[in-house]
Design goal:
By secondary structure, this protein is an alpha+beta fold. The protein has three helices and nine strands.
């Protein structure tokens, strides 16, 4: 396991059609770029942020805590990236979120239905929850910047 504590933040971009896409950053690096770096052959397609306008994630504070809308039978299994087209099911990256007393883990990252050679990521829980609160506030105001 990665013994260091990671930091979570989000970037926001308006995509064609005017919807807002949200992409996680880990330690200041876009998750889209971290995943793309694993695709040496360039065959995986292009990843993009999550577009809450296009998919009902439910309340995002619950979603990023691994509660609410999750994938399959695994508790906490969520989309963390979608396709650049805005469709989350087209080319997603998923992770299992585990909320612990002091930390939050993102583990079992998959893309292209294959385990990714990255993570797990461990976040300080107060910092993680603060980043998610900021995400919720930004989306409520519709601000991309």
């Amino acid at each position: 396991m990665n013994a260091s504590i990671n930091t979570l933040s989000f970037t926001y971009a308006t995509i064609p059609g005017g919807a807002l896409a949200v992409a996680p950053c880990i330690d200041g690096r876009l998750l889209t770029e971290l995943v793309k770096a694993l695709d040496e052959d360039g065959i995986a397609g292009t990843f993009g942020g999550l577009v809450p306008e296009y998919f009902n994630y439910g309340p995002l504070d619950a979603y990023f805590a691994g509660r609410g809308h999750t994938l399959g039978d695994v508790p906490g299994h969520i989309y963390v990236l979608g396709c650049e087209c805005g469709e989350v099911g087209c080319n997603p990256v998923t992770a299992v979120v585990t909320m612990l007393d002091e930390t939050v883990l993102w583990s079992q990252l998959t893309g292209w239905d294959t385990p990714l050679a990255m993570g797990p990521f461990q976040f300080d829980r107060p910092q993680y929850e603060s980043a998610v609160r900021e995400l919720v506030t930004r989306l409520a105001t519709g601000r991309a910047s």
